[in-house]
């Protein structure tokens, strides 16, 4: 142990650290015991994301208001009524799902749309569009801060989604569209500038690898057909920002 630690830690704390370091165990509860921590006190209101809790006996642990998201458990993990989780953020990862979760974490870590799409394609090819994958895609889409990132996830979704998921996608998609168009308009202070931002989005929808993007593009086509008939231009109507907004809104009834 370094001289610095010797100066600031008690002999009991130093002994606990040595015990943990010398242990071959990876079980969370075992390491807690070796570290001299109190399960009923020392894990309240704590940041504990991504813990490996496989095989751990969590009886008597108090995780009140702690963040346990993406912590891994397995059939040998013991959790009962004495495990206190009131107010805790819990999003357990079952051990068998760990490979796909790691792939999801890799996807979220990239800032490149091109790389993100490749990783998404690989994940879907390996695991399919299961409920777990779809839930992840929706969650990632509605967490996106740019419409381009939103489309990376949303265009990979299947056609069949719950009404709640569709509402979430509509609300966030329209919010990001408005953000995109306002930013485009601010560059030149001309409304016409926003029109040029629409075409790449429409192209992304047209080339969608999943049913949701294709469905949204279909609604956009209907909007444009109706618009063309209204102004008697027989299909030559200009694609505008409001047309994309209307396409999103049409998802509620179609």
List the strand order in the largest sheet. 1-2
Q: Which regions contain 5 or more consecutive residues with pLDDT less than 50? A: none
Number of helices: 11
* Anisotropy-based shape: elongated
* First-last Cα distance: 67 Å
The total count of strands amounts to 2
Give the integer mean of the pLDDT values: 86
Describe the fold and architecture.
The structure is a single chain. The protein is mainly alpha-helical and 254 residues long. The protein folds into two domains: 10-91, no CATH class; 96-250, no CATH class. The protein is 57% helix and 2% strand. The protein has eleven helices and two strands. The chain has helices at residues 3-8, 11-22, 28-34, 98-109, 113-127, 131-143, 147-154, 163-188, 192-206, 211-231, 241-250, and strands at residues 72-73, 93-94. The chain has a two-stranded parallel sheet with strand order 1-2. The longest helix has 26 residues, at 163-188. The termini are far apart. The mean pLDDT is 86.
């Amino acid at each position: 142990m370094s001289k610095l630690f010797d100066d600031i830690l008690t002999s009991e704390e130093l002994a606990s650290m040595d015990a943990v370091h010398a242990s071959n165990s990876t079980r969370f509860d075992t390491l807690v015991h070796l570290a001299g921590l109190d399960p009923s006190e020392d894990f309240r209101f704590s940041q504990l994301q991504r813990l490996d809790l496989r095989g751990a006996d969590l009886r008597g642990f108090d995780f009140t208001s702690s963040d346990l998201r993406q912590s891994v458990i397995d059939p040998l993990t013991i959790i009962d009524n004495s495990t206190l989780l009131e107010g805790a953020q819990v999003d357990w990862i079952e051990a068998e799902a760990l490979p796909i979760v790691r792939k999801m974490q890799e996807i979220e870590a990239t800032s490149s749309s091109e790389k993100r799409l490749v990783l998404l394609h690989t994940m879907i090819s390996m695991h399919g569009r299961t409920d777990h994958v779809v839930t992840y895609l929706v969650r990632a889409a509605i967490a996106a801060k740019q419409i381009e990132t939103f489309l990376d996830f949303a265009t990979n979704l299947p056609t069949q989604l719950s009404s709640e998921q569709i509402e979430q996608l509509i609300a966030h998609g329209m919010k990001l569209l408005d953000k995109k168009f306002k930013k485009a308009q601010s560059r030149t202070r001309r409304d016409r500038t926003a029109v040029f931002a629409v075409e790449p989005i429409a192209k992304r929808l047209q080339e969608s690898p999943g049913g949701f993007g294709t469905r949204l593009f279909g609604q956009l086509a209907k909007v444009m057909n109706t618009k063309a008939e209204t102004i008697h231009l027989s299909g030559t109507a200009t694609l505008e920002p409001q047309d994309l907004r209307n396409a999103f809104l049409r998802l509620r009834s179609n």
